[in-house]
Structure formats: structure tokens, C-alpha cells
Amino acid sequence: MSDKKHTLTKLEERFDSLAPPSNHAPELLALDLLNSYNSVTTTRSYGFDNGFLYKFHPVTTRRQIRFDILLESKLVDEQLEYHREDGYTDNLRRLRPIFRPGGTVRYSTNNESGRMNLSFTYLFSHSLPALSYQLRTQNTANPLVHYENNANLKGNLSHQVQFSASRFWDSTRRNISFNSHFNRIDRQIASARFYDPATSITTYRPENVDGNWNADANFSFGIPFGPNYMFNFYSTTYGQFLNSVDYASQVVNELQKSVVENTTVSESISLSGMIHKHQVTLSGGVSWLNSYSKMGLFRTINGFDTNATASYRIGLESGWEFNTNLSFIARAGYSDPNLNVNSCLWNASVQKAWLGGKLTTRLDAVDILGQNQPISRTINAQGITESWASCMPRYAMFHLIYKFDLMRRP
Q: Using 50, 70 and 90 to split pLDDT, how confident is the model at 195?
């Protein structure tokens, strides 16, 4: 049952996109100036992973049916000591049960024509909020912006479902695959913002929110062709729907949900080939993003992203090697003109191997056209985020690499 955990863990990672964006707001990183940061957290976990595996593999056929059932349970003993500046210490302790049932059904065949695999996985989990939410702290250092905790938060409930299918033909080396996922989390923690017009005070407090879910699917196929299958064509079609629920700013301590429906459809293709010492790859894709909400101030987004890349590599005599790639990106249809940008990125490198491959020298030229931008603007589930990155628009770098062999050979 070594691979069952790997499958279930991969499903769990897909929940990151369902987190309410407000819970990652910069203002939440403000220091709590009225309280000390000195705390001691002690965690003791007691638990077991109990599983059941059943295989059905008839001797006369090349098919296999497999059932994996996972019953993971833990009892976590948590203790938190939070030391304040005034000398008072909060001592919190609780026993937190964790129960995570899940299961996978797999069907596979392997015969003269090729291989086929089908699988279906379900995972449920329930977890309580961090113990630090039980602290009754409040930051009022800014008289107009307050931050307070919430000891009444409930634990979240998550459901994850995955289905996958793949087929490979030995005679033609063609392959197709289909993957789909459904994720839902209720009682997530979001940052609610309250504004009181009578006092002009804005208060941030964590609150539970329901209704975050997403579903996605992708279909891909690959076809090698040409003499000795020296060329390969690959295509991927992807679609996703994300229902994002967060809290909108309201007055007089009233909560109102902000529900944004995000739809994404994309197509990408690539063609690669190896002719003697020349390796060429051409790839491109287009994606469409639609974001819609019934909120009055929300601007509907219909954006298109297009990209194309060409790369070339050649290995020369005497250990020389040359690489170059050229990428073009175009964005259009966004309401924010800063997002409708076109850019072209060209990189190249040349390297030489010495001393039988132990020593390598390489010279890289990055962003030769000088169009790399330090600003990254992306659209999250509730709106637009903008981030800055410190980068050099264009530069050259020299590498000197030496491989040490510490293994003694007879």
C-alpha cells in the first residue's frame, strides 16, 4: 500500500487554490504591538494508519482490480503558552482528534495491444483551527484599524474526488489520458472586514465561510511519428471552474459574502524532433479566463492569454553545445490595461566540456531583448493581485562546473 498515500496526498495539494484570498491579505501580517511574541507551543501526536488492500488478478487474464481503503486517525495533544508584555500568560491546551478516511479503486489491463489504467479516489478530512485562534488578543495600536482574534471558529470539512484514465498502444506508441478532480471545503477561515461609520474604525476578524469548491478536467494525447519515431506531437486540453467565496466589506458589523465564478479553458500543443544532432521544439497555447460575480462593483473579466515558444539545441564536436529559446506572450481582453501586455524573451547559452566531461564551462545570455518585466500581475479568485520582483532585465553569466567522483572504483 505504499502508493496509496502518494495518490491521496496529491489530491490534498489541489486545495491550495480554494483558500479565500482575504486570508492572505498584507494587512494580516501587521505586528501585534500590544502583545508579546514570546510563545511556546508543544504538540504530541498519537495515531495510526490502518488500511485494507484487496487485489483481484486472475491467472488466465492480464487484468487487475485493486481496492485501497485508508483509515487514518490521530489524537493530537496541543499546548500553547503565550506570554504577554504585562506579565500575564495564556495557557491553552486541548485534545484534537483527526479522522481522514479515504479509498481508491484501480483497474488495469496489460496485453499485446498495450496498457490501460482506470482509477477513482475519494478522501475526506476534518481539521480544527490552529490553537492560536483561541487566544483572546486584540491589536489596537492603530486607532482606526483594529485586529482581533476569534475563539469561536469551527473546523473545516473537505471532500476530494479524483478520476483518471489512460491508454497506451505498443504498436504505434500513441497515448491518451484523462484526469478530472472535484474539491470542496466548507468552514474555511477568511478575514472579515467590518467598518463602523459612527467611529470610522475598521476591524479585521477571522470568520468561517462555506461554499468554496472547484472542478477541473484535462485531456491529453501524444503521437510519435517519422522514421524511428524521431518526431513527437503532444496536445493538452484543460478546463476548470472555481467557485470562490469570501467576505466583502460591510458596515455596522454585518457580513456579506462575495461569490465569484471563475471559468478557465486552455489548449496547448507542442511539436519536437531530433534530426542528427539538431533538436528543435515548437510549442504554443491559448487560454481564456472568465470571472463573473453578482456583486455590484465587480467588473467581469474576459481575458485571453497566448504564448508561443521555439527552442533549438545542437551538440557539436569536441564537447561544444549551443542552446537558444525564444518565447512570445500576449495578453488581451482584460479590463485593466496593465494586464494587456505583449513581451518577447530570448535566451541563449553555449557550453564546452573539458577533461572527459569532468569540467564544464558555460556562458548564458538571459533576456537578450531586455523585455523581462519586474511586475507580475495575476488574477486570483476574487480580483487582481500585483507583485513586484527584483530582477535584472538582461544579463550574461559565466559558469564553471567541475564534477567530483568520490566513489572508489576497482
A: confident
